[in-house]
Specification:
Helices cover 33% and strands 17% of the residues. The protein is α/β, with parallel strands linked by helices and 307 residues long. The longest helix is centred in the C-terminal third of the chain and has 15 residues.
Amino acid sequence: MAARIRVGTCSWADEALSKYFYPPGLPAGERLRYYAEHFDTVEVDSTYYRLPVESMAARWSEQTPEGFVMHVKAFGVMTRHPVKKEQLPTDLRDEAPLDERGRIDRPPREFRAEVFKRFREALEPLRSAGKLGGILFQFPSYVVFKDRSLEYLAWAREQMGDDEMLVEFRHVSWYEEDVRAEVLSFLEEHRMSLVVVDAPKVEAKNVPRTLFALTSPTLYVRFHGRNAETWNVRGKSAAERFDYLYSEDELREWVDPLRELAGQAENAYAVFNNNNRAPGPDGGWVSQAAVNAQQFKQLLQEAGVPA
């Protein structure tokens, strides 16, 4: 039996959602509860910027119904992104090797291992409640396909224990035809899910390709929008970079491929990362991610795909 495709958004608290999805005056502390009345899965992206703490994960669990699934984005140190010292817990700051800009610079494995440990421990409330989905490892574009990168992935897999790893690459070297089979085999062997992406249709080396492949029992799809003009503009906010409202036809392109992949999966998720606002059909503004998530869910249901 095909897996039901759960549809949601990347974050429940970005500015467009906060302003245009929730009822006016709804307290910030009630937004996740309201969100969970409309969607049954979400991706937590705030954990990329700061390590989560257990009390926070406990609140998330308390505010969501049974069966709700939360995917959590790995902290920047875990995916080899530049992270400022101030983003670390205070007791780790003195141990952190820094570059001239005050960013963590090639920390030893022991340091990274401690970060992994704290990250996993903080998510125990979600794990014990059966609400923890996958951990999203979105690697920067300078992490290219090579032996050292594969070795790091294997090491990260060991640190994550039984938690599920969702891996998104941002460099085309991982998608080239001559290495594609090796990459997919590696991910499958190490029980990692390749994140299937929709992104601008350009040939830039830092734009991930759409590769319909399943490397674990979990299908995970991220819709980034197709705004080629803003993808590589320096200084843009995430909302500006992923400023895109999918048309119904563009979303419909995905129905059959995901129907096929979900037929081979045990769990399936589609989340929208286009996190800006767009003009609403009746005036005013709407959240792009929320509108497209609702549209896509409706298209799947109309096509007879469980969603």
